[in-house]
Amino acid sequence: MGGYIEQPRFSCALAGQQTVLAIPRALPVVHAGPGCSGKVFAFSATNAGFQGEGYGGGGAVSSTNTGETDVVFGGEPKLERFVGNALRVLDGDLFVILSGCTSGLIGDDVVRVAQQYARDGHPVIGAETPGFRGNSYVGHEIVVHEIIDQFVGDVTPAVRPGLVNVFASVPPQNPFWRGDLAEIKRVLEGIGLQVNILFGAGSAGISEWRDLPNAQFNLVLSPWVGLDAAELAEKKYGTPYLHLPFLPIGPELTGKTLRTIADFAGLPAGPVEEFIAHEELVFYDYFVSTADFVADYRNMIPSELYVVGDSAYALGATAFLVNELGFVPEGIYLTDDPPENRQSDIRQALSDIVADLGDGDPVPRFEIDGRAIQDSIRTRLHGSTKALILGSTWEDYLARETGNLSLHLSLPITNDVVIDRSYAGYRGGLRLMEDVYTSIFKAGDIADTTLTRNKQ
Amino acid sequence: MAMAHPVRLDLPEVEVREQRLRATVSYNGTARDLSRRSKNFSLVNHERGFEQCSTCQQGCAGIAYNVRGAAVVEHSPIGCAQPASAAMGINVANAARGLPDQSVNVLSTNLSESDTVYGGAEKLRATVREAKRRFSPDAIFVLSSCAAGIIGEDIEAVTSELQDELGIPVIPVFCEGFRSKIWISGIDATFHGILRQIVKPARKKQPDLVNVFNFEGSDTFTPLLGKLDLRANYVISLADVETLSRMSEAACTAHICETLATYPAKALEQEFGVPEVRSPPPFGISWTDAWLREIARITDREELAEQVIESEHKRLEPLLETMRAQLAGRRVYIFAGDSYAHSISNMLLDLGLDLIGVNTFHHDQTTDGGLEEADSLGQLVASKGDIGNFSVCDKQPFQMVKVLKDLQPDILIVRHTNMAVIGAKLGIPTIQDGDVNISAGYDGLIKLGERLLTAWRTRRIFQNIARHHRHPYSEWWMAQNDPFLLSSEPVA
């Protein structure tokens, strides 16, 4: 957490409410000022390509809407009654009381209130998520930690070989979390694992979380978010974990990732290789079918790559676009504000998975100030109109201004509707190719020579 | 309506609406009863046993984002600062008005845990200086936040020190979310800062200029006022600091909504001698007539106004007849901000629709000027009669779902983002009427009718959503008879 920020790329720790909502039939109870929940929703879900309120999110989130009296006299007694009524009015399987800045500063104890209800058998936990504690990624970590600690709790695991819990995305701070998790689950099942995906429509909801201690291992597909949960589960249940610091995108990285996972899980190689071979057959059949287009339109397809996004997605996307599609990396801007002690690992991971960082700018920059990112890109472009900028809506403006192309990879996204889009795995790689190549027509009509019309 | 207190521009803060206008967020009854009970301020706010997230005044204070050439510093944790949607919306509005793009210049101090312990004043100074460096703004608004308020940051001291240092207005906006349940209190706070630190005494009066307080909406008022040879001075969204400084030079102040702007209108009248237009806002035929007549009276164009009104009525009549025939018999419900809900009500009744109920997000029991002519609820009841199923609550979908399920309107009109979904999920053709300006004036009626017709004709998608949607409320709650059960007192 540094200094001032222009063009914020994340919300605050209270965005942990979106993590709660990503679990089927789990509901947040926000103990914060009247606008907090709505602001978090607007940034995290609406500005993630209009992902919507889902079941009990958006305007339906219960909130104590802390007022002046609560700030002066304390809001805990009111919260106690409030949670009782929330349990009567709402139909949910898990309730997470989240504190905001007001309650965090006046010292209301949301965990104590939660425990009062939990003792009577209600599925209620508390999480300290005041905005000043950190960003959306931190809020996600806090919520997941508290669910494991307070809700899943101290149980003796009955380990089932082949069962894996996946910690791979911060919903919807990763705007493609829904599609990504579906693809991750698909490929893990493809190599013979059983998967607790934990979030999204593919999750069974709280029964999956209850099942979490029984996993053979935990899988963290992210440079830093998720490690806390894996470490907690190791401590509590003795579950080992595998940490891969990127989201796999495209066949090369996905195949490598699946082999590493299979090896860790001790899966028989035969079926794993068979699955990978089949996926690659399909992928490369499509891939080669784009050769005509790529060759005819080589002059029109951008070649310089700028990536603005969180470290998990930026690493995987850069690897695919450079290694497999021939882009030249020019700038990589990581916006998730990883803890300092993780930053050198992230740099290392990037150079491990990207074949050729070329003579561009091989050093990923950790930058949370949007203006600093845009100034850097503008300088590096040197007037070029051959760039593809993966980023947020802010980068759309930059691309338009500089005559380049842009594609969405990170929040905020205010001009695009995201449903099941995903760039993860095999299917995601194809989708990314489709979106990259289609984007050249966004700038105007194109002739298969070197001419365009309306390029801004 | 009782006379309200004078505007106090000598004080750094304006009182929130609960205190200033005795605003309330809970009522259930009829329009006439609400209007009558407001006259002696007999409505009170209750502690609520359960509620859903509202909206805060800090967000509304963000109307300062829309001032062209200004910068905004939010002294807050990062979650409070939300410029992305505004940045897009503002330039869509600029295009609609034929104006050049403007950038949204927002910096957050990004308050962290250690700032809450050791104080953030130094960070605030650094951020305001950086805002000056980055944006070269003509003014800087500094918005407070819950966190800054509770840790006791002295924003007034810092802004006044930096105003001297930077040589531009550095305006403190006191808008801590917890201080008010009436989110529009935050707009009052920003207006207050503009009136104190930007508006100058008139250098030269502009007798054909009419201040129009509005949001970033379409350009309805240039043609409408143009018929009277008057110019619309759109404030404050999309206007630059220089334009704001000259609001004092206008012939009079009008607005699209008493809820939005009776505070600055009163201040401009009291402190700068610019008369406030004494009329309900120009929505629906009779209110548009009254509005034009009042502006014409102030600007000495009464004869011209009568000619305009006569020819506009003549032009409108056949269009209106066709529209009424197409909409005949449709039952409509309104879920919108206080005064604007009254304005849409007035239009719907002009369109011959069956208005079966209204919920406003809050209710001011008076306005800043205390003018009877600008009391849109009183005017509505006086001209159109009583409206049943009239309630007040600050969004609260758990209540609205029950109200709407019970009333089953054919069409729902909502004015607030993320609330139209309530209607959609109940299968009710719903429109989110974000742009207020488009409905103003005579043509506004026809345009509103067209939007309603489109919602009605495309209703299959709403019906499909309703078939596949599950709401998060318990059977117990859905079985309760009174939707407002938990809003009056806590249940045991």
UniProtKB/TrEMBL annotation, chain A:
> What domain of life?
Bacteria
UniProt GO MF annotations: nitrogenase activity
Record-annotated Nitrogenase/oxidoreductase component domain positions: 19-440
Q: Which EC class does it fall in?
A: oxidoreductase
A Pfam family recorded for this sequence? Oxidored_nitro
What UniProt keywords apply to this chain's record, in alphabetical order? Oxidoreductase
Entry EC no(s): 1.18.6.1
Coiled-coil ranges per UniProt: none
Name of the protein: Nitrogenase molybdenum-iron protein beta chain
